[in-house]
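Bumping with the actual sequence this time:
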Amino acid sequence: MEDIALCFEHIDRKPDFSTIDPPDHGRIETRNIWITTDLNDYLDFPYVGQVFMVERITYYIKSGKERRVIAYGLTSKTPDMASAKEVLKDNRGHWCIENKCHYIIDWNFDEDRSRIAKGYGPENITRLRRFAVGLLKSKGVRNVSQKIRQLIMNRRLVLDYFKMTKNSHCASTA
């Protein structure tokens, strides 16, 4: 990443693409992206299509303060495959995974504080947690936290909800 940072260190051109989000949660966010193929042959990384620098500027409306964060990255997509706008969209979409999966698992299972640390335990318990969240979502559950709280204290309710026994109740608890 140092090589990419050095490439953009003295950038003297306008961003290749910029976007400004409307005010939300008391802040306005501006994202600028610069992309280049100058390092493609230099970097020891397979399938480099472009490298980029994203500048995120967050303006907090109440305090009037501003925060500036720089992130560097690379993509296998060449300029023919993805414009600066599309690379920025992909970069932003990465957080979608964080918010839709990791956040739910950490919030509901307190995964970041898990003390399971030996052998395949951490990997296995994470898979089980992801499986549980995926199973609930596949049943159309929108509020995973609420459904977990509803099911957590009653094993029979879990079996009935997923119709996992021959004598499960016909009435759904969705």
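The tokens above came from a reply further down the thread. The CA atoms of residues 75 and 87 lie 8 Å apart.
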